[in-house]
Amino acid sequence: MTAFPRVLQGHGTENDFVVLPDPDGTVWAGDRLDAATVRRLCERRAGLGGDGVLRLVRSAHVPDAPQVLGEDLGRCEWFMDHRNADGSYAEMCGNGIRLFLHALIAEGLLDRAACAEGVLVGTRGGPRRVGAAADGGYWVDMGPAREFGRGAAELDGRSFPGLAVSMGNPHLAALTDVDVGSLDLTTPPLFDADLFPEGVNVELVNVVEPGAHIRLRVFERGVGETRSCGTGACAAAYTALRSEGVTVGTVVVDVPGGRLSVQVTPGTTILSGPAVLVSTGTLCPEWLAA
Ligand SMILES: N[C@@H](CCC[C@H](N)C(=O)O)C(=O)O
User: Fold this and answer.
1) How many angstroms separate the alpha carbon of residue 123 from the centre of ligand 1?
2) Run means of pLDDT, 10 residues per run, the chain, 290 residues
3) What is the number of the ligand 1 atom nearest to the C-alpha of 51?
4) CATH code matching the domain that covers 6-141+275-289, chosen among 1.25.40.10, 3.30.830.10, 3.10.310.10, 3.40.980.10
5) Which residues contact 190 (CB under 8 A, 6 or more apart)?
6) Is the ipTM of this complex over 0.95?
7) Which of 230, 234, 223 minimizes the C-alpha distance to 200?
């Protein structure tokens, strides 16, 4: 391993990540970035702290990239190697992929002007196009929201019925009249394991303006409550539109960490929002070795 592995920290609407540049797969090769190391990096007191880890790596150096990208492998130079804070893998991360592109640009690995039309990035949910927007933020073509049933989350002794939606990763988006700001999300919501055998991200959603503006809180699989979730914003926007009997529209999504915009079209979903880098530095070898 390089003596001092480079590290960055940043967030998208306060969904925060430890970012590990590893373009040629040499820094974190093999099982160096195992689940225990991810958990240590994400630990907020004894580590750096984050909701997850993003490794900036070329697809050619990711052992499972051929399997998850198939014939798109050659079209995706870069791969978002994302982990949840508990060390688990997720198929997709909507806030993370904006920060991923922002960090590639900041590290000089891509030119911002060349990213205006979007760059195809490999993820474990398949390829996603992500681009640099004129306002300094980023947009992501997230693919279509796919409904796969109805379920309910049990929280605070109450049941919150919602729509099961896949954005590559699983979501339960529950519209409710209960003020989401009043909910206790310190303990995981209960859910139907038959409907969500791989676990689920749960969004509790208040409609601010029907079909146009929602507010949500989220409990993420593999993390806990986070300040934002990009895939969750897409699932919730889709659910809010469906409740109005429409399947297209643009929805402003307020999350505890800021504001996202979700455009649902007949064929896909476009997520837009900021990405912010907070710090850059190096990991101390003695901490890593401890
Ligand atoms: N915060 C992310 C989603 C990260 C993955 C999720 N916890 C899962 O396990 O599916 C986002 O912005 O989409």
Assistant:
1) 12
2) 84 98 96 97 98 98 98 98 98 98 98 97 98 98 98 96 98 98 97 98 98 98 98 98 97 98 97 98 93
3) 1
4) 3.10.310.10
5) 153, 154, 155
6) yes
7) 223
Is any atom of ligand 1 closer than 6 Å to the C-beta of 123? Answer: no
- Report how far ligand 1's centroid is from the alpha carbon of 179 (Å): 23
Q: Could you state, in order of their start, the residue ranges of all structural domains in the chain? A: 6-141+275-289, 146-267
Q: pTM for this one?
A: 0.98
Q: For domain 146-267, give the fold.
A: Diaminopimelate Epimerase; Chain A, domain 1 (3.10.310)
What are the φ/ψ torsions at residue 237 (nearest 5 degrees)? -65, -45
Quick one: tokens of 175?
A: 């519209």
